């Protein structure tokens, strides 16, 4: 799962959100950056693992 998919998934799970229109773009495809299975490190680690 790349960061744009994570952002969309988190937005959809936000209380009060009724629809999410995904028009996000990116300069770098980050799907290959974590090929070693390494999870992202930061404040939202637990939240991201549960998506």
Describe this structure in words.
The chain is mainly α and 51 residues long. Helices cover 29% and strands 0% of the residues. It contains 2 helices and no strands. The longest helix is centred in the first third of the chain and has 10 residues, at 3-12. 0% of the residues are buried.
Strand-pairing-aware structural class: mainly alpha
Q: What order do the SSEs take from the amino end to the carboxyl end, as H and E?
A: HH
Low-confidence segments? none
Give the terminus-to-terminus CA distance. 9 Å
Apparent shape: flat
Characterize the largest beta sheet: strand count, sense, and whether it forms a barrel.
Answer: none
What is the share of helical residues?
25-40%
Question: Secondary-structure blueprint of this entry?
Answer:
Elements: H1 3-12, H2 45-49
Summarize the structure.
The chain has helices at 3-12, 45-49. The chain has 51 residues and is mostly helical.
